[in-house]
Amino acid sequence: MQGLFVIERSAxxxxxxxxxxxxxxxxxxxxxxxxxxxxxxxxxxxxxxxPPKLIILGAPQRSGPEFQGMLDYFLSGRGANxxxxxxxxxxxxxxxxxxxxxxxxxxxxxxxxxxxxVALQQLKPESEPGRILAQLVRSGxxxxxxxxxxxxxxxxxxxxxxxxxxxxxxxSTLTEGHxxxxxxxxxxxxxxxxxxxxxxxxxxxxLKVHPLTSQIPIAVITGTYKDQIIxxxxxxxxxxxxxxxxxxxLSMARIRALARSVENQKSIDAERQRLGGILESVxxxxxxxxxxxxxxxxxxxxxxxxxxxAADELLGRKAHATFHFxxxxxxxxxxxxxxxxxxxxxxxxLRGFETVFWxxxxxxxxxECSVVPLAINGRRQGxxxxxxxxxxxxxxxxxxxxxxxxxLTGVSNRRHFMQxxxxxxxxxxxxxxxxxxxxxxxxxxxxxxxQLGDAHAQRVLTELSQRFAKRLRxxxxxxxxxxxxxxxxxxxxxxxxxxxxxxxxxELAHEIEVEINQRKQRVALSVGVAVISKDTPSAEYxxxxxxxxxxxxxxxGGDQTQIYVSELDGRVARELDAGWMSRLKDALEENRFMxxxxxxxxxxxxxxxxxxxxxxxxxxxxxxxxxxxxxxxRLVNRDGQWVMPxxxxxxxxxxxxxxxxxxxIIDCALQMLAKAPRESTVFSINLSNLTLQDPESMxxxxxxxxxxxxxxxxxxxxxxxxxxxxxxxxxRKFIQGLRKLGCRFALDDFGTGxxxxxxxxxxxxxxxxxxxxxxxxxxxxxxxxxxxxSITQMAHAMNLKVIAEQVDSDRAFAWLKECGVxxxxxxxFGEPRRLNEIDFTLLTSxxxxxx
Length: 851
Known about the structure:
- The chain has about 850 residues and is an alpha/beta fold.
- Strands 25-28-30-31-32-33-34-35 form an eight-stranded mixed β-barrel, surrounded by four helices. The chain has a five-stranded parallel beta sheet with strand order 2-1-3-4-5. Strands 7-6-8-11-12 form a five-stranded parallel beta sheet, sandwiched between helices.
- Helix 2 packs parallel to helix 3 (about 65-75), helix 17 crosses helix 18 and helix 21 crosses helix 22 (about 645-655).
- The protein is elongated and about 140 Å long.
- The protein starts with a strand and ends with a helix.
- The relative contact order is 0.04.
- Mean pLDDT is about 85; it is low at about 125-140.
């Protein structure tokens, strides 16, 4: 139709509008998919000799500035006087205000899209669309058959009914009336009761059983008022009874009432035919379900898309059980899990939902569907579903996805990561500030593959990627580079938070456990970090430095985080140092270091693991009169997050604050030790190498011990090395000074590159603590067994006690006891607990009672 324009951005919805109009024998002059294009075109047409006459405007689901501009155009712009039918998903406050502010407008909800032709008729009934659509409702005057044996009565009623706009034919006998009724498409039949060849109820009965006339309303007219006659006619199928001797106007009122019911029924039939035509012609699949999800209607497109031949194969069946019973992978899905089935049951709309429908031949059909609840007279009567095949789009999307993603884990591949990393480098050059790249290398991945197989090892990688992905922010990029190596580009980071953020990803890996040789172990990562600044030269430079940092963390024993700062990045190093110095000083001033205690269990007097005594969540040696507890620390951020020593100790050493932190820890620990039983309680406290080199720290520790009145024999200091010892002479002097007070010393991490035979030769220590990585796998690893055995024998030859840490199984306990190790520590004996929550007096009493 010339002058009718459709403005709708959605191709699916504009297609639906065009099909709906086509069923009403009209079509728009043009369909416009852009609001800005629509304004320009309408402006041109309004200045021409062929201005637009009628507009159908589609409102988007989410209103934006472009749509608001379109509304303003029809409200106060040049299009203010154009008739507009607004198609919307829901009636909003914005739409209500607009409708109240302008004339010549009507709202049609998409849930009632079939009412669009009637709405156009109401909007502009004198227009060409109005005339065409009016013909759908009524194609001509109602046809009436009047049967009566009196010629004068026939003439009078024909004249009266013709004057009222009816098309009237007459008959004088039952036989003639029956023949005429069967020959002509009448809308209403009026029958006299007394006819020459029978009675009116006989004619009514004949017409009601014939398929051509069974649906035509029939009224009886008689000159005699008898209950028996009225009853016989009504029983035969009459819908009204009139009398010749009543006021003529009353009879005409009855006939007009019958005519209105006929008109209404014709309108309903026309609407049904039109809707049927729309459903038949729509290219998208359409089906309806009742409140139980059973299929009530389908259009041909739905039947064809689902691979069936006829509607009878689907009608009455549950839609969920028939074609959306499983997800894209074929995994069965319960109705309670299906978003579509939940929409049926709850009466909630569902729009633009992508899923798969399973065709008759078992193939999956990718679809985009919308579920619209159907309400009739205010009562919910099931739902209508519109769906379309998106196979081509999905295929293109899949190809693009595969080009940029790792097939195993679903995260980005190296190619896509390089693009994201280059984009981040450009952002830093334009905006300044810092970003970072994390290189995440799974520790002992080869062992996982060897012990569990490729499939299980790959599941570990998939689970790691899923956990990492949950922490990503906007512009962050996660990728699998190769095998067990992941890369993560973090956009816009504060240097002072970088170590904590990076270490948080390492801690995520600990949430995953694998079972190797019937023993559960946590997955661990070595994390390397490279800083990205405006001076970063290339993506390759960043990746290589992050990889080198990860290698360094792995050489230090793994399960650690290392930040790479080159000699050329002096500014970055200074900012890192300044940020952490301020943060650590604040933590000291605010007492935000927390102390934990974990038992170090002596094996003397314990025949086997069953002889251990359980108390307060720990398994302890109740035979031994003296009990050792290692004191460890955590830095507590202001948000309550704990920072592990592996994170803050290297940074505190870097900025020279570790001696102050050690002194704070010693002071707090000795306050608690002074309250514990002197004869039975020993604390093992870590000292950093920087503290060991500082004479002032030695004097401060001496003063602290004396101030708290603690016996030096109650203290073991663990020499915790984070790099090569600067001066063995200074360390030896420090140790000898505190040994005069009775303090003992243990050399921690023995067996790694930091501890060597020369340290045992030159440092007057009392114990060695075997590095935990040797212990964690020694039950199955012959090399580790040999190493632990050799260390134990050598230490005993030098009159040193041996402590093995990271003991977490019965087998490890039994093997280490047989090996001759003196003390054991690990989760097998209990988790670390807050020091200030432990009552050592009560604990000692309980152990004494058990002995």
